[in-house]
């Protein structure tokens, strides 16, 4: 499961970056960084499987403490999920490990 965004996509996102927390992403520095994160990924049928406090309708994923929960299903023996949700929650894991903030989306909602 992989996902990517082009430099053009990043510039497009910059218009709303403060609303969506993209201003917390590091800027391109030209340095090569190699990460080997260890985490658990929970693929669940609906939001009721999310941790307490995040188990409400309309939440498509959450992350914290090196664990990710995303909506998905098993179809013909294959795990199907939305890659954007997985990528977004992966970002939360990296952000959490760097700053200690658990789920910045929800923290940003009240700002």
Characterization of this structure:
The protein has helices spanning 7-13, 17-20, 83-99, 104-109, and strands spanning 40-44, 61-64, 67-75, 78-81. It has 111 residues and is an alpha+beta fold. It has one domain (7-109). Strands 1, 2, 3 and 4 form a four-stranded mixed beta sheet that branches. Strand 3 (67-75) and strand 4 form a beta hairpin. The radius of gyration is 15 Å and the shape is globular.
Key terms:
111 residues; alpha+beta; 4 strands; globular
Query: Average pLDDT across residues?
Result: 69
Integer count of domains: 1
Q: What fraction of the residues are assigned to beta strands by DSSP? A: 15-25%
Helix content bin: 25-40%
pLDDT < 50 stretches? 1-22
* End-to-end C-alpha gap: 33 Å
Radius of gyration over all CA atoms, rounded = 15 Å
Offer a quick outline of the entry:
The protein has 111 residues and is an alpha+beta fold. It has helices spanning 7-13, 17-20, 83-99, 104-109, and strands at 40-44, 61-64, 67-75, 78-81.
Set down the secondary structure blueprint.
Layout: H1 7-13, H2 17-20, E1 40-44, E2 61-64, E3 67-75, E4 78-81, H3 83-99, H4 104-109
